[in-house]
């Protein structure tokens, strides 16, 4: 029997020819600086575990005792019988951490963004998004059925011009730290524009929490912005927190609205309570152990200084995301492969994750890296890119 529906060979071959085919590598053992891949040890420069908490003994212990107390599965959605005291305590602690009235847990960041935007906007409204926003923010905007407007990356003048011709209810949406560039949203200008135009403001700080701000409060702490300035604040727990899941923090009414209306909250299983327990441990470490942020900044400075001396094309970032721009997808793949031969795992990021012609090596740092490892990376980059 032949059914043309299942004939994917043409499309798959095209992806391969365009150097856009994606592969998975199987990792054995815990997420850490050293990863075991097929019996080989690779130094990890591609994870989002910026503070080195994904395999922290206290986080793992909290997870295990969470399983002892709550079992594994949460059994149902939060609105049925899956909302445990562990989830509830974590929400209260995240609200306190972010200085917001309340916080609401979602099972993933992708789902949080789909849920929030589509709960707050509908047909006839407008969503304004930075061109380089994370796919989940773009998809949330499309799902909401609101008029979809993209503005130039981190360009508040373009945002202002777009807002000027927008009528009705509007929501400004941006990454706080851009996931593939490492730079920041122009938050002060966005806060002002949202206020002037009575628009909503949603900031997704997946890559800022834990990394930026004295207490790890992310981009809003970095700029000193309160709930009044940035009323809808989203964070993920699978990056610097080292666990899994996501949250939205804001006013009492905002959170109640999301509980009623966010479909990706209502119609999905609550994440395991033990994950919430593990996250409570990582939230404590993230706040108390500020040396992790300091160590990270030290490594980032060392890398940037060395990379500039070597003439690498860096981007405007002081966060843990330090891309080296290559341009061509094939060349980015080759560079990544050469680094692998030196025992370093750095991922090549290609379209459609980044705009056409801007393929790059996305290097990420962790507080658990050593200065020697940064130096080894610089040396290998020098060879791989020459
Ligand atoms: C990773 C990421 C997400 C998705 O979060 P998950 O919990 O991995 O689903 C959303 N937004 C940004 C900016 C991200 O980097």
Tell me about this structure:
The chain has 386 residues and is α/β, with parallel strands linked by helices. It contains 15 helices and 13 strands. It is globular and about 55 Å long. The model has no long low-confidence stretch (mean pLDDT 97). The protein binds pyridoxal-5'-phosphate. Pyridoxal-5'-phosphate binds next to helix 5.
- At CATH level 2, the architecture of the largest domain is 3-Layer(aba) Sandwich
- Tell me the distance between the termini: 51 Å
How many strand segments? 13
Our count of domains comes out at 2
Secondary-structure element order, N to C: HEEHHHEHEHEHEHEHEEHHHHEHEEEH
Report the principal-axis shape: globular
Strand order of the largest sheet: 3-9-8-7-6-4-5
- In percent, how helical is the residue content? 40-55%
What is the structural class?
alpha/beta
Task: Please give the CATH class of the largest domain.
Answer: Alpha Beta
Radius of gyration: 21 Å
What average pLDDT do the residues reach?
A: 97
Low-confidence stretches: none
List the ions, cofactors and other small molecules found in this model: pyridoxal-5'-phosphate
Number of helices: 15
**Major beta-sheet overview:** 7 strands, mixed
Indicate the CATH topology of the largest domain: Aspartate Aminotransferase, domain 2
Question: What percent strand?
Answer: 15-25%
Provide the CATH superfamily of the largest domain.
Answer: Type I PLP-dependent aspartate aminotransferase-like (Major domain)
Pathway: Cofactor biosynthesis; biotin biosynthesis
InterPro entries: Aminotrans_II_pyridoxalP_BS, Aminotransferase_I/II_large, AON_synthase_class-II, AONS_Archaea/Proteobacteria, AONS_Proteobacteria, PyrdxlP-dep_Trfase, PyrdxlP-dep_Trfase_major, PyrdxlP-dep_Trfase_small
Subunit structure: Homodimer.
Cofactor: pyridoxal 5'-phosphate
């Amino acid at each position: 029997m032949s059914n043309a529906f299942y004939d994917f060979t043409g499309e798959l071959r095209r992806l391969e020819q365009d150097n856009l085919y994606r592969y998975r590598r199987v990792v054995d053992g815990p997420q850490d600086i050293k990863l075991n891949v097929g019996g080989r040890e690779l130094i990890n420069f591609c994870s989002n575990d910026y503070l080195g908490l994904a395999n922290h003994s206290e986080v793992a212990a909290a997870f295990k005792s969470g399983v002892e107390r709550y079992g594994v599965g949460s059994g149902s959605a939060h609105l049925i019988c899956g909302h445990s005291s562990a989830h509830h305590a974590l929400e209260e602690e995240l609200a306190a951490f972010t200085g917001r009235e309340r916080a609401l847990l979602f099972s993933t960041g992708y789902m949080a963004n789909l849920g929030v935007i589509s709960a707050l906007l509908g047909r006839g409204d407008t969503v304004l998004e930075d061109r380089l926003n994370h796919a989940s923010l773009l998809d949330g905007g499309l799902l909401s059925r609101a008029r979809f407007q993209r503005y130039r990356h981190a360009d508040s003048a373009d945002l202002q011009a777009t807002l000027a011709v927008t009528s009705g209810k509007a929501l400004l949406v941006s990454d706080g730290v851009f996931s593939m560039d490492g730079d920041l949203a122009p938050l002060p200008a966005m806060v002002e524009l949202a206020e002037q135009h009575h628009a909503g403001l949603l900031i997704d700080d997946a890559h800022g929490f834990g990394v930026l701000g004295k207490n790890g409060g992310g981009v809003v702490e970095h700029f000193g912005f309160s709930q009044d300035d940035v009323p809808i604040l989203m964070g993920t727990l699978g990056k610097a927190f080292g666990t899994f899941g996501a949250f939205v923090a804001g006013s009492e009414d905002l959170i109640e609205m999301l509980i009623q209306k966010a479909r990706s909250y209502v119609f999905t299983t609550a994440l395991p309570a033990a994950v919430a327990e593990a996250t409570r441990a990582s939230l404590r470490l993230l706040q108390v152990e500020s040396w992790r942020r300091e160590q990270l900044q030290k490594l980032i400075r060392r890398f940037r200084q060395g990379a500039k001396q070597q003439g690498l094309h860096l981007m405007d970032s002081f966060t843990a995301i330090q891309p080296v721009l290559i341009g061509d997808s094939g060349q980015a793949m080759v560079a990544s492969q050469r680094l692998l031969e030196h025992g370093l795992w750095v991922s090549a990021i290609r379209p459609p994750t980044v705009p056409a012609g801007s393929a790059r090596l996305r290097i990420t740092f962790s507080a658990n890296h050593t200065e020697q490892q940064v130096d080894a990376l610089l040396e290998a980059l020098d060879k791989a890119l020459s």
